[in-house]
Amino acid sequence: MNVNDSRGIIFNIQRYSIHDGPGIRTTVFIKGCPLRCLWCQNPESHLSRPIVFLNSERCTGCGTCLQACPRNAISLIEGASKTDRNRCNGTGNCASSCPNQARTLIGRSVTAHEVFSEVNADAIFYETSAGGVTLSGGEPLSQPDFAISILKQCKQAGIHTAIETCGYAEWNTLRRVLEYTDLVLYDIKHMNPEAHKEYTGVSNHLILDNIKKVCAVMKLPVFARIPIIPQYNDSERNVLETAEFIACHLGKSVSVHLLPYHRFGEAKYQRMEAPAQSVRIIPPDDAHMERIADVIRSFGLQVFMS
Amino acid sequence: MDLRIPILKKSIDVEKYPLCTQKSRLITESFKHTDGEPMILRRAKAFDHVLKYINIFIQDYELIVGNTASKPMGLEFDFYAGLWSQDEIDGLKENGYDITREEEAEILQMNQYWSAFNPLKRMGLLFGEPLWLLMQSGTILPPWKSREQGSGGGYAESGMGLGPGFHILTVDFENVLRNGLNQIISRAQDELRKLRYRSIESLEKAAYLKSVVIAHRAIIGFAERFAALADETAARTTDLGRKRELEKIARTCRRVPAGPAVTFYEAMQSFWFIFLMITPSPVASLGRFDQYMYPFFKKDIDGNETSEKEVLELLQCLRIKDMQINRTSGRQARQKNAGMAKWHNMVIGGVTPEGDDATNELSYLILEALALCPTPHHTVTVRVHENTPEDFMIKALRVVRTGIGMPAFVGDRSYIAYLLGEEIALPDARNYALGGCIDATVVGKSRIASYGMFVVTKVLEAALYNGIDPRTGVQLGARTGQFTDFGTFDDFMKAYKAQLEYFLELHADKNNIELLVSRELFPDPVRSSLMLGGISEGRSLLDRTFPFENAAVMNPVGMINVVDSLAAIKKLVFEEKKVSRQELLDALSANWTGHRYSEIRRLLLAAPKYGNGDDYVDILAKDLFEHWADTAVKFKTVFNGTHKPTGVSISAQWPGGLLTGATPDGRCAGECLADGSVSAMRGADTNGPTALLNSALRIDQTRYQATLLNLKFLPSSLKTDEDLRKLSCLIQTYFRHNGKHIQFNVVNETILRNAQKQPEKYRDLIVRIAGYSAYFVHLDAPIQEEIIRRTEHAKVG
Asked: Distance (Å, rounded) from C-alpha B781 to C-alpha B789?
């Protein structure tokens, strides 16, 4: 297969991205994620296929979408359209026919070359700022061949490449992607395997094994990214264990990036016609973030805040 | 004295601006005694009369003296740009200006005297029929009501000069600071002695030189009045500290601007007196202040004559002084330049005439003064080149982050390339300053005296309607054919270009008429003598040709709406044929009302829009800007130069929009046009700043004297120095590829709160949040709150 022809599903390309690696970057959000973190603020990224957002405030109940849907997944209830999410397979006909833009399709199928072309449009900005491309998600490893194809084309054009990953993939898959990667932004969510399983749906064994190999075998520069989720992973014990793991097993060249929990994704659950998140988390304040940073710094690690 | 700046700042915070008549009364008195003399002498004598008798005062705590009007924070009526009718005076009162009954009566009386000198009337009577129709249509803003009254309403401004205000130039401040006015006077006297009367011009030259002597003596006399007043006040003052300050003021005003400034303080005072004399002008340029003031700064700092703290205080005093220069105008011009707009531009940084980095300690202190005293004026613009120090950029961006919209940034590469294209010598090109909003000026060697706001969407309408203005039914343009008869997009494009050429030829006539009338009525000995060769040439600045001969410019308002409209027509009418030619015209005249028409509007809105790095439309932008530039330079000015293309819409996009019906880019009738000149239409750029800049870089900006680009940012993307460093890279990239100008709107909490309350006014407000960007007003209330909460974190610092 020609690498340029590799297709995948993305849900956003963010240009002038300044918090996903060095310099001015373009971040490509690839759909699909193997984890289901309780605090997830990007639920639209979970499935690899496109999904539909419904903004019920804009829906007038005109019924145009009912006709458009090939799978009869939409019904009118009390003058408003509702989607049977089990039937919907994300064709998006409802979105393109909606006269009020109440429905939008999240996710589109594109070729790796199309993605590359958009990334390459900002080449002059990468050059001045030492920036490049970052593949994020979802999880870029959920569409590995597509990811490789994008990264390969970028590298060939001299663009610096980074991936942002949760690390939950077969080592062999990860390794293949890393061959075209200059920098890895690697999420570490929790050190305790049981807690990790409870909060994200999977254990952290594979994740922690993989990051060790990224550092030891591939010898790639790594940013360890730690989301700070109050009540879940911000206990002193977990912070200490995380810092110790990084300092002792990965090395002090790994910089630590703390990402405070935010709630920008709350409304997305409504738009997916899903129940609201069961957990209610208050974003951490600056003082708390600073305390955590200090603990990590005491291990001789460099800490950055986003 | 740490209270000084807060107290002075308080003094400029007035509820109502007093309108004054003393200055025009003095001018009128003088004029009545000089009937029959050459105009330039009459003006010099009137200027002298004003400076001898106008009220002067020194405010408590002031270090730099020289009041701007006969009352504090006052505006003096003047008549150089039109008369003041009862209706216009009432309009001012409605808008909260203070005016007494006696003064009102006085103005109406002076109107009668000045109607003989009314430049608008003189211009109006010279307009041929097609041009007259164009002026009535408002295509060159603002619309004219009658040949006698123009657009109605004059100006009221502060400043001691005689104007007229809208001359865009940078005088040679350095010469005055270093040599003093006495030297100019003696040089003029020498020239007079040498003068032999063997040519027609010799009489004019004599009058000019005499007027220069009168004017500069008047300025020195004015400074002496302040010296005397400072002495008197000192004698009455019991506070010893203030007494010493006043004595120093008196000493200083006796030395400058008559003689050369020796200290930094004297240079500041000398500068201010000269600046007062080149105003009233909303477009007075402060030039490369950090360059010509630096030797005085350096000498005083090295010799421990002053400290950075004292310099910082004086720089803040200057900001406050500039806030005392105010301006208002008739209703229509008030609309064209929203608020009390003025463009007192100080440029800092950039390269030296030799090409090295020119940034110095004073450049940093000017930014510091801006941060400490964030008044809207004077404007500060940073000249950026490849070796501009990064910490200087970051310091400037920290000020930007506070949300005051300053400083703006301009790219040396593009400006210098433009001037080299105009065959300006490299050292002069490198020494450019900014006049007006952001137009290139060569210090002492160029002046713009005709600067119009041309509503280019009216040309698009002419192309759509065979030359007829759809608003009035008047045949405004050429007959280029019915839209329904155009077989291809190229045919339509040809019609548009033909219309533009027709309109701009008329525009050139208007500009030249304006230049000729100004030349006759407003010879200005002060500014003329402060230009290069001001004495040796022996001519007023509207009576000679300059090395950079840019007397008149052509400036399109709404070009991006034309670009987007042409792209939409190309795609939907001629390529995809989803909208028929007749349907488009019908939809436009229905202003999109009706089911099918709103469907058409949706299709048009979805067509490619400028600002997204999409070549389909960006190529058209490139083409149209090039065509505008090519056309402008075809038309000569009366000074033997050509018209210069520029691109600065100020706030003319609003009245321009009111005059334009619905446009094929999906814009509604009357809606505001796109701002700046290479900014995208509000809300049309949805791919972030790099995409917008990529679009703007498709346009060859080195052909333009100025272009303007606005970017909006949320403070959350400007939180850390690292964020600012990346923004600096964004600016550097744009300039490296010949972008000309960027300014930033940093959205603050107040704006976001207003957007929540009045979403219809903030439809274009884009906020960038984790992983995606969105229109703020489309976000759910809780997310809006979350964003506002984040915004609060971005503190000044």
From this structure: 12
For A256, the 3-state DSSP assignment is strand
User: For a pLDDT cut of 90, what percent of chain B falls above it?
Assistant: 75
Give the chain A residue whose CA is nearest to the CA of B697.
A124
What is the residue whose two structure tokens read 């009128």?
B28
Give φ, ψ of B40 to 5 degrees.
-65, -35
d(CA B90, CA B108): 12
Chain B residues lying within 8 Å of A42, measured CB to CB: 771
Cβ distance B771 to A125 less than 8 Å, yes or no, reads no
What is the interface pTM, i.e. ipTM, of the complex?
A: 0.90
Closest CA to B287 of B400, B378, B397: B378
Q: What sign for the dihedral angle of Cα A72, A76, A81, A82? A: negative
Query: Pairing between strand A7-17 and A25-30?
Result: antiparallel
Q: Starting at the earlier edge strand, list the strands of the sheet with A303-305.
A: A108-111, A7-17, A25-30, A132-137, A160-165, A183-187, A222-228, A255-260, A303-305
DSSP A250: I
Interface test with A, best of B595, B731, B733, B778 (most A CBs within 10 A): B733
Q: Are B667 and B587 in contact (CB under 8 A)?
A: no
Instruction: Say yes or no: B241 contacts chain A, CB-CB below 8 A.
Output: no
- Using CA atoms, how far residue A154 sits from A120, B596, B599, B733, in Å, is 8, 45, 40, 20
Q: Which residues of A touch B773 (CB under 8 A)?
A: 14
Predicted pLDDT at B769: 52
Helix (H, G, I), strand (E, B) or coil at A3: helix
Q: Do A125 and B690 touch (CB under 8 A)?
A: yes
Measuring CA to CA, which residue among B91, B500, B113, B150 is closest to residue B331?
A: B91
Query: How many Cβ atoms are within 10 Å of B478's Cβ, its own excluded?
Result: 18
Distance CA A223, CA A305 (A): 12
pTM of the model: 0.92
Tokens of B650: 């100020």
- Written as one string, the DSSP assignment of B136-150 is HHTSBSSPPSBTTTB
End-to-end CA distance of chain A: 39
Among the partner residues B694, B726, B783, nearest to A121 by beta-carbon distance: B694
Pinpoint the alpha helices (H) of B285-408. 289-292, 294-302, 308-323, 331-336, 361-372, 390-399
In this complex, do A129 and B690 lie within 8 Å of one another by their Cβ atoms?
Answer: no
Q: For B365-415, what is each residue's pLDDT tens digit?
A: 999 999 999 888 899 999 999 999 999 999 999 998 887 778 999 999 999
